[in-house]
Glutamine transport system ATP-binding protein
Amino acid sequence: MKGGLALIEFIDVNKHYGNFHVLRDINLKIEEGEVVVIIGPSGSGKSTLLRCINRLEAISSGELIVNGTLLHTKKVDINQFRRDIGMVFQQFNLYPHKKVIDNIVLAPTRVLGLSKEEATKTAMRYLKRVGIADKADSYPAQLSGGQQQRVAIARSLTMNPKIMLFDEPTSALDPEMIGEVLDVMRSLTHEGMTMVIVTHEMGFAREVADRVVFMDEGQILEVAPSSKFFAKPQEDRAKTFLSRLI
Ligand code: ADP
Ligand code: MG
């Protein structure tokens, strides 16, 4: 545990898609500065859980509190709320007709009201951070997948978020590009960013996670410190899941 302040708290959360019960009695508290990695089989509800955190999905019952906002109530200013939460997806979602720098300054100018000059300065700082300042004037198609994903991360960081959510950020990348994206994520963990990461990169998970959350069939079956989880998972389904990866 880090600072002791919960930034994200699920209390008895359930979610249905029609008749399908996708999240079952989720209880999870994530503290400021914590790095939590969510793992589990395909279809177990990992993306849904992540998407509830920035209200891309609504919960059906229970309570969900994120960054002091009660998301289960109706009176939520979603745009205001989402400013503090960055999300990086498997697909990079960059605008193909806009240069890298223009992709990044869009939200800070429109949403935060920064001047173009200020936003560009911040954007360049983060492009440097992710190692591709020289690509500012390129178009996304001129970049490799790994570079595009790093632009997507820089774009999120330029909004100065309190929480970063990652949903399989390296799954669409060629193997030789996975490392450069994980390096950027690793550096964020060293800076105390609160991060919730869904990934199949178990070596990375083991290294950076403060805690690992194992999900199956919409339930959290195990939550444990990374070293403990990977050395000795307690749940049979977690053991089976890990053994199949090796
Ligand atoms: P994971 O990310 O662990 O692979 P997801 O959260 O994407 O799992 O999906 C969990 C389950 O919910 C899957 O069975 C999936 O088919 C189903 N599901 C996901 N999104 C929707 C949706 N919008 N409508 C109906 N079912 C969905
Ligand atoms: Mg998913």
User: Anything to note?
Assistant: The chain is about 35% helix and 25% strand. The two ends are 29 Å apart (CA to CA). The mean pLDDT is 95.
